[in-house]
Amino acid sequence: MKSTRFSLGLTVALVLATLAIIITASPALAIRVKELATFEGVRVNQITGYGLVVGLNGTGDKDQTGFTRQSLSNLLKRMDVTVAPSALKVKNVAAVMVTADLPPFVKPGTKIDILVSSLGDSTSLQGGTLLVTSLKGLDDQIYAMAQGPLSVGGFAITGQAATVQKNHPTVGRIVQGATVEREVPIRWQGKETLSVKLSQPDFTTAARLAEAINESLPGAAAKPLDASTVELAVPQNFRENLAVLVAELENLNVDPDYVGKVIIDERTGTVVVGENVKLSTVAVAHGTLSVQIKEGVQVTQPGPFSDGQTVTTPETDINVEEGADKLLLIERSTNINDVVKALNAIGVTPRDLIMIFQAIKAAGALHGELEII
pLDDT (tens digit, 9 = 90+) per residue, 175-218? Predict the structure, then answer.
């Protein structure tokens, strides 16, 4: 029956089965400050280094990769082995860049994970071992030393006429492959003021965060400086024990506020509707146009014992069908449940919803941001 197309249950099943639309609808929840913000001065630092991976099974850099041969020659020279770079074969060696994130407050001796990426034209780092590599920060100081066997989540097998590859074999990871040698200096104790930085700037959330801090610590005098920063005075009893104050602030609950958004991914046909999205009353008529093109060839054979030639004539069959969709009225929606019901009543596929959302936004009836990724 035609009315089945507009059935709410059938439409919801279609949406779920085809991965077409994801709707986030949940009541307001109090979220810890730990998930919403960070504290000024407490941040991750990036460190990098240049190294060599050895022990590869012929999948290393090619001989024309000059910096790999030069690096290997310099390494051997430090070990009292002098070999000219031009005399080296580096098919079992690969030049790599080693990167890592240095967490705040880590002490010397702490182990951290590292990522190793091919720098030359190596085809695979599988089975390789990273030689000792110093990792430096932007200040050119050594903060960690890395070494160890690589774990590569893939492989590449090459034959004379075909290649089989899984995942990305030129990038590997070493879990706890680097040892911290230097601590990043952070001025922490004795601070008179403390700033809390929201991960997603929002004036309403900043005001609510300041209110929550003042209710928990009446002497903090917290105030929002802008959409992302809340500043508070450190109480005297916490000046030399700031970690306890931060621990209390991290566990405060705040109800964050967000801009209503509709996110559209045209590549996958995914539509995500935020909780605060609202619709004004609007009429929508969405036509379905189906075009089928069939290509064929008509072959005409010459008669027997004739000097004629075979004649081929291309044939094209085009069939166009347009659905008889009606104009539907979408009532004003004040919450996410009303939006879902209104859109489901149209009875279209999620890819059609992408165009409908764009048209509703152009008509001024979509109250929220429309973002296409």
Answer: 999 999 999 888 777 788 899 999 989 999 999 999 999 998 88
- pLDDT greater than 50 at residue 132: yes
Looking at the structure, do residues 278 and 214 belong to the same domain, yes or no? Answer: no
Distance CA 173, CA 178 (A): 11
CA distances from 201 to 37, 209, 230, 257 (A): 10, 12, 11, 10
**Tally of domains in the chain:** 3
Instruction: For residue 347, give its domain range.
Output: 2-27+261-302+309-372
Q: How many CB atoms lie within 10 A of CB 61?
A: 28
Residue 32: inside a domain, yes or no? no
183: helix, strand or coil: coil
Cα(308)–Cα(302) distance, rounded to whole angstroms? Answer: 5
State the average pLDDT for the chain.
Answer: 81
Q: Is the same domain home to 271 and 243?
A: no
Domain co-membership, 173 together with 198:
no
Structural contact between residues 247 and 217, judged by C-beta atoms closer than 8 angstroms? no
3-class DSSP assignment, residue 6: helix
* pLDDT 10s digits, 276-303: 888 788 777 766 544 555 666 677 777 7
Cα distance between residue 85 and residue 32, in whole Å: 57
130 and 51 part of one domain: yes
Task: Select the more confidently predicted residue: 343 or 99.
Answer: 99
Residue 336 lies in a domain: yes
> b/e for 329-338, b at 16 or more Cβ within 10 A?
ebeebeebee
Would you call 229 exposed, middle or buried from its count of C-beta atoms within 10 A (0-12, 13-18, 19+)? Answer: middle
- What does the pLDDT look like over 328-347, one tens digit per residue? 666 776 666 777 777 777 66
- Rounded to 5°, angle at Cα 267 from 265 and 269: 60
Using CA atoms, how far residue 347 sits from 16, 224, 287, in Å, is 14, 45, 12
Q: Are residues 250 and 164 in the same domain?
A: no
Which tops the pLDDT comparison, 331 or 137?
137
